[in-house]
């Protein structure tokens, strides 16, 4: 049996933290290794406990979630950050993704979907709730559908070969956050909402061979 997925739960409300602990309790596939009540604690615990995934609230006193995500990226903490928040406003979503979050879910996400999202985050896959994905695509939608930049095509080609965001970033000497931004832009230009559809559409239109 493989080792459990190690989780750090970050939220300033004890009731929310307890609820999340309850979701993962009794499932041998997951282990909650720590809890934090703000961004500063999240960074400290992530460094000390080496979790696989950090479930990160955004609006917290002191250091907020976006600042904590940026700090974790700057420290090159290996943990994937999965935002779990009540808010899906434009001012919350895009900064969190650009800071380096692997995914963005709302707190009303059903348990089964949350567990799937954590598994996907460990694999380096982007996870977005449907309303969040729609908002992101609306923000970055460009009028020219097929006018992909050279860098967007490079990212798309690597994704088509099965590269994760981290692997694509390493090969192109850019950050994972930049890869995510390129992906969001090319999704909008191609009129799709995920990696598989982007690759399929790109092959159909002759953008990839």
From TrEMBL:
GO terms for biological process: phosphorelay signal transduction system; regulation of DNA-templated transcription. GO terms for molecular function: DNA binding. Pfam families: GerE (PF00196), Response_reg (PF00072). InterPro entries: CheY-like_superfamily, NreC/VraR/RcsB-like_REC, Sig_transdc_resp-reg_C-effctor, Sig_transdc_resp-reg_receiver, Tscrpt_reg_LuxR_C, WalR-like. It comes from Kutzneria buriramensis. The keyword Transcription regulation applies. This is DNA-binding NarL/FixJ family response regulator. Residues 6-122 form the Response regulatory domain. Keywords: DNA-binding, Phosphoprotein, Transcription, Transcription regulation. Gene3D superfamilies: 3.40.50.2300. The modification 4-aspartylphosphate is found at residue 57. Residues 141-206 form the HTH luxR-type domain.
């Amino acid at each position: 049996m493989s080792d459990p997925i190690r989780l750090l739960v970050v939220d300033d409300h004890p009731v929310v933290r307890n609820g999340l602990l309850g979701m993962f309790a009794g499932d041998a596939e997951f282990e909650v290794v720590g809890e934090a009540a703000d961004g500063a604690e999240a960074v400290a615990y992530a460094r000390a406990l080496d979790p696989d995934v950090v479930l990160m609230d955004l609006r917290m006193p002191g250091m907020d979630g976006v600042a904590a995500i940026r700090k974790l990226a700057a420290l090159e903490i290996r943990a994937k950050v999965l935002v779990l928040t009540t808010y899906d406003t434009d001012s919350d979503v895009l900064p969190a993704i650009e800071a380096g979050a692997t995914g963005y879910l709302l707190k009303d996400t059903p348990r089964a979907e949350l567990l799937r999202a954590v598994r996907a985050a460990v694999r380096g896959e982007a996870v977005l709730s449907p309303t969040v994905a729609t908002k992101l695509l609306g923000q970055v939608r460009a009028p020219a559908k097929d006018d992909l930049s050279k860098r967007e095509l490079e990212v798309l080609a690597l994704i088509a070969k099965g590269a994760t965001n981290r692997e694509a970033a390493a090969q192109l000497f850019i950050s994972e956050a930049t890869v995510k931004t390129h992906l969001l832009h090319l999704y909008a230009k191609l009129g799709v909402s995920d990696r598989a559809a982007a690759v399929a559409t790109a092959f159909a239109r002759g953008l990839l061979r």
